Amino acid sequence: MTDCAIGIDIGGSGIKAGAVDLRTGQLVGERLRMATPMPSTPQAVVSAARRLVARIARAVPEAADPATVPVGIGIPSVVVDGITKSAANIDPGWVDYAATFEFSRALARNVVVVNDADAAGVAEMRFGAGVGQLGSVFMLTLGTGLGSALFSDGKLVPNTELGHMEIRGRDAERRSASSARVRRGLSWKAWAADLDEHLIAIDRLFSPRLFILGGGVSKNPEKFVPFLTVKVPIVAAELRNDAGIVGAAMFAAERMDAAQAAPLEPPGAERAPDPAT
Hints:
By secondary structure, the protein is α/β, with parallel strands linked by helices. The chain has helices at residues 42-59, 99-107, 116-127, 173-176, 178-184, 188-206, 243-254, 256-261, and strands at residues 4-10, 14-21, 26-35, 71-75, 79-80, 83-84, 111-115, 136-142, 146-152, 155-157, 166-167, 170-171, 210-214, 234-236. Helix content is 31%, strand content 25%. The strands form 4 sheets. The protein has a 5-stranded mixed beta sheet. It has a 5-stranded mixed beta sheet with strand order 10-9-8-13-14, covered by helices on one side.
């Protein structure tokens, strides 16, 4: 596996990217950030990703070779076989979009597209707060929305999307995402009560051994964690807001061999018959 990959974390309000040393889980060079295009159509976001990768390749020599340095992209969507199947806090044009193919074509690199919370969770389980944790562990990313990643004895169960479980007749993330605190003008304590209700509902369904809370608020756990009453241990993500970048890069590197072996074709494309047959 290559020692370096590029990770891109696409969120509802911002896109973060950087080159990652896969031996340590640390970023190599500067972390880049830009506002998510509005509207966040696939075409606009793909163009933004192309600019970010070009900037990283110029600034970080280890990331410059497109043949050996893949790109991993985390996106707030269920991702199945490289196709984005939902659109949470991004443009509805992402539904049933051939994301892996289109990013690979635009970036001229091997690209892997994954759910953004799954990417962040993988990074935390490998390099952060989840190291050595067995049983059921949830990584929750608190940002514009609320993403979830479930691990069973360290193995990812992908695309859980528990931000969209129903609480009080609506998507839970409408009250428990970090953006909800700002949008509703709540104190940390008041917002923690809404988050707590969501965590208690998850605990009732899954009985996890640990919650890892990530996203921007992981920098300030002392402001809200003391107000949480759920009977499950809670820790802040150690990789903070870089977890999505690191995890996306990890996915890309670990799947690079398979991506190189597979033909770059859009899903459902008809292949020409082999002239030798």
